[in-house]
């Protein structure tokens, strides 16, 4: 017997089920589920570059906010950045980012870490 679900819920359930199956089988999760630093760069340049220096080719910002490189250098856990962006500091605007957008920004921000 098939269960009837709205298409959007069915899609999310299928994706979640696939990810769970891949994890249980020990197979790597496909890149579609991974954070995308390139997308994070686009979001950062749109939302963050006014206050933060977000890229090596950006020389100034409008505030004294730390650069992405300095944030990456002192960050010990990408998860702490994700939590921070989900509930930003009062001086930061409420950007209402999705969890995927937050993951993408954090991936891009961490790519700024110097070796």
From TrEMBL:
Task: List the signal peptide residues.
Answer: 1-34
Give the species: Methylocella silvestris (strain DSM 15510 / CIP 108128 / LMG 27833 / NCIMB 13906 / BL2)
**Domain Cytochrome c: from-to ranges:** 35-113
GO MF terms on file?
A: electron transfer activity; heme binding; metal ion binding
Q: Which UniProt keywords apply?
A: Heme, Iron, Metal-binding, Signal
One Pfam family, short name: Cytochrome_CBB3
Entry protein name = Cytochrome c class I
Q: Does the keyword Metal-binding apply?
A: yes
């Amino acid at each position: 017997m098939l269960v009837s679900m709205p298409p959007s819920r069915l899609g999310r359930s299928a994706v979640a089920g696939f990810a769970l199956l891949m994890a249980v089988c020990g197979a790597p999760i496909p890149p579609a589920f991974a954070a995308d630093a390139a997308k994070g760069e686009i979001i950062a340049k749109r939302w963050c570059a006014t206050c933060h220096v977000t890229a090596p080719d950006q020389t100034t910002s409008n505030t004294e906010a730390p650069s992405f490189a300095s944030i990456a250098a002192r960050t010990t856990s990408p998860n702490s950045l994700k939590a921070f962006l989900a509930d930003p500091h009062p001086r930061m605007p409420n950007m209402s980012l999705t969890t995927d957008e937050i993951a993408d920004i954090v991936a891009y921000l961490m790519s700024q870490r110097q070796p």
